[in-house]
TrEMBL record:
Transmembrane segments: none annotated. It comes from Leptospira interrogans serovar Icterohaemorrhagiae. This is Leucine-rich repeat domain-containing protein. Signal peptide: none annotated. Pfam families: LRR_1, LRR_14. Keywords: Leucine-rich repeat, Repeat. Gene3D superfamilies: Ribonuclease Inhibitor (3.80.10.10). Residues 42-124 form the Disease resistance R13L4/SHOC-2-like LRR domain. PANTHER family: P53-INDUCED DEATH DOMAIN PROTEIN 1, PTHR48051.
């Protein structure tokens, strides 16, 4: 069996006098689903069949616009790559529930991320982010947002409303 380990670290973001503290430290071992795709080219051959796409540690520098074809995608793992930007088409993945972008080199997020209406988990750990788009506040189903190890000084007022 393949397992994926997720570790969330103690973090503190200071915004003026407001301290946001995430005191949870947890380890999750999740079985990687057997129908998970690990090759983007193969996934795009049967786009409507793809529910889980694991592209971590593949040295990706870009994500093609064709990612929008994966309309039934629920989990997208792009962690530990070399991405510096995401295409705006990422916002068309309306069924996406979990997006892992940890350990890339993103400096910004497209505002279209706010269109991911079913997103529950967003991992932006270890990026080069200094700001977030206000549209991130539109993620009404978001339960977990990991912003560890970024250079954020403020969060959009829309976050958490």
């Amino acid at each position: 069996m393949n397992f994926r380990i997720t570790l969330n670290y103690l973090q503190k973001i200071t915004i003026g006098l407001l301290f946001l503290i995430n005191l949870s430290c947890k380890i999750q071992a999740e079985e990687v689903e057997p129908e998970a795709y690990q090759d983007l080219t193969k996934a795009l051959q049967n786009p409507l069949d793809v529910r889980v796409l694991i592209l971590s540690e593949q040295k990706l520098t870009t994500l093609p616009k064709e990612i929008k074809q994966l309309q039934n995608l629920k989990l997208l793992d792009l962690g530990h790559n070399q991405l510096t930007a995401l295409p705006k088409e990422i916002g068309q993945l309306r069924n996406l529930q979990e997006l892992d972008l940890s350990f890339n080199s993103l400096t910004t997020l497209p505002k279209e991320v706010g269109q991911l209406e079913n997103l529950q988990r967003l991992n932006l750990n270890s990026q080069k982010l200094t700001t977030l788009p206000k549209e991130i506040g539109q993620l009404r189903n978001l339960q977990e947002l990991d912003l560890s190890f970024n250079s954020l000084t403020t969060l959009p007022k829309e976050v958490g409303q």
